[in-house]
Amino acid sequence: xxxxxxxxxxxxxxxxxxxxxxxxxxxxxxxxxxxxxxxxxxxxxxxxxxxxxxxxxxxxxxxxxxxxxxxxxxxxxxxxxxxxxxxxxxxxxxxxxxxxxxxxxxxxxxxxxxxxxxxxxxxxxxxxxxxxxxxxxxxxxxxxxxxxxxxxxxxxxxxxxxxxxxxxxxxxxxxxxxxxxxxxxxxxxxxxxxxxxxxxxxxxxxxxxxxxxxxxxxxxxxxxxxxxxxxxxxxxxxxxxxxxxxxxxxxxxxxxxxxxxxxxxxxxxxxxxxxxxxxxxxxxxxxxxxxxxxxxxxxxxxxxxxxxxxxxxxxxxxxxxxxxxxxxxxxxxxxxxxxxxxxxxxxxxxxxxxxxxxxxxxxxxxxxxxxxxxxxxxxxxxxxxxxxxxxxxxxxxxxxxxxxxxxxxxxxxxxxxxxxxxxxxxxxxxxxxxxxxxxxxxxxxxxxxxxxxxxxxxxxxxxxxxxxxxxxxxxxxxxxxxxxxxxxxxxxxxxxxxxxxxxxxxxxxxxxxxxxxxxxxxxxxxxxxxxxxxxxxxxxxxxxxxxxxxxxxxxxxxxxxxxxxxxxxxxxxxxxxxxxxxxxxxxxxxxxxxxxxxxxxxxxxxxxxxxxxxxxxxxxxxxxxxxxxxxxxxxxxxxxxxxxxxxxxxxxxxxxxxxxxxxxxxxxxx
Length: 670
Known about the structure:
The structure is a single chain. The protein has helices at residues 2-9, 12-77, 80-84, 89-103, 134-140, 153-159, 161-167, 218-228, 270-278, 319-369, 384-408, 415-470, 478-502, 516-534, 552-568, 602-605, 624-633; strands at residues 107-111, 117-120, 145-151, 169-170, 184-185, 188-198, 204-213, 240-246, 249-253, 283-289, 292-302, 308-317, 512-514, 536-542, 548-550, 574-583, 588-594, 638-644, 648-656. By secondary structure, it is of the alpha+beta class. It has a 5-stranded antiparallel β-sheet with strand order 2-1-7-6-3. A 5-stranded antiparallel β-sheet has the order 9-8-12-11-10. It has 17 helices and 19 strands. Helix 2 runs antiparallel to helix 10, helix 6 crosses helix 7 (161-167) and helix 14 (516-534) runs parallel beside helix 15 (552-568).
């Protein structure tokens, strides 16, 4: 308001300076906001793409490891060495032991056709039945398989007591992890392989089963880390990490704790566990890993029965990338500020060429009013219109001076009439000068307002395009977009007031031709946060094709009020349906706002549009619906309501294609 007051009451110099300074002072924060938003979004998305690709590489390596272990077992099963010692338990056990040691298997079993152990690499006693494992049953059916299996403490100890000790990990209390009463993890994640053994005639005579424990398998995660984050993959001082989880416990990792030890036994956050283990989805986002923020990728790991038993993780330290991003954004913001400052300086120099001639004309008029009839403006610079105005002023002053000279030569008998006539002429002169001055200022003001409207339209169009391109992703920045809309609207209001000043008789407001469905979608971001807070699902059903003519802001105010009321009626969640339909008689459209809330009692249904009537004792004034009805009726429409207690309420806004204004002349067309 102070700015508008200054424009109305200040000098021409003050007005021009303020008009020059206002656009950059308003646009600079908007540009900075856009740069920060777009820069953050784009940079963060690039980091997500990077970690997604790295997680894919890690998974492919993991799969190659599994396939390589399977091929190693299959090669031994098909070898002549194995078949040659099948009937010699001592030599068979020695061969299995040597192969397990060379191939880094924790155990190798030869099973008979019933799935019982015939010989073992670790000296286990024959006779144990292994058919309770799906991978063994598949091999007995002739299908070589490799899966991940979880062995409990009893099975690990049965294979080898040292194997159980290798698997055992103390569970470290971890911030934000899901509560777990256990103090240690004594299960083991095992690469579990079983392939059929065939004789020389191709008949199956048994199964070769093998396993490799992944708990504390640091070579495995270090190899993944070296493969994904090789030299040069992570500049800027960042570091990459890889981890294998059993359930949500780190069983093999190169993530370090504060003391430099590997973070074995620490757990993942409850949010990551819920998305990856409970829902079976990938996590590609920032995550707090043990003691710092990492750009992280998690995906589930499944066993032979497709049950999610753990997770594979890769990620890199975020802080160095964040610092570079902030430096880049700071440089861009500084560049924008420098460009704006240069633009202001150039604009002020241009404005000076306008207000200096006007000040000279004002000084001339002041001198004439003080009694100096010879005062003249002379030739001025600043544009054709201003030069012509100065010339007309000098011509007018010359004319007045000539008339005064002629009047002085009149008969002395007419002196009194000359005096009276001179007074009338001087009054006419002042009125004419004032009219010319106001006309010039009005023309200048209207021209400046017109030039401001053009960038406003471009800014609004690009903002609408940004909103359309972002789609659902725009929900994360709805507040920023709303602020941009408000500031653009503020500029539009300022321009409107300028036009009102310049041509008050020609400007009364705007009526827009609106698509009701599009307006519903544009209105949703204003109340989206309340819908998410209440757990309400929003359904759109926009079938209307008829466009209506009404003030956009007033209709949006009505829709926001109806939607907020509907959300308040569903504090425990529900469904909000926003629909549009064409109306035939009279032509127009109907907007329905339907909720599944507690409904309106029959004794209250007839009073909902009464001023100050409300059933919300602790909040609300009871004016929302009455004001909304008044806004719609102003254009010849109306609002109706239907409700069933316990099932929900529907408010219907009936709009005309061509408004029928009540009580006053309608607004101008947009």
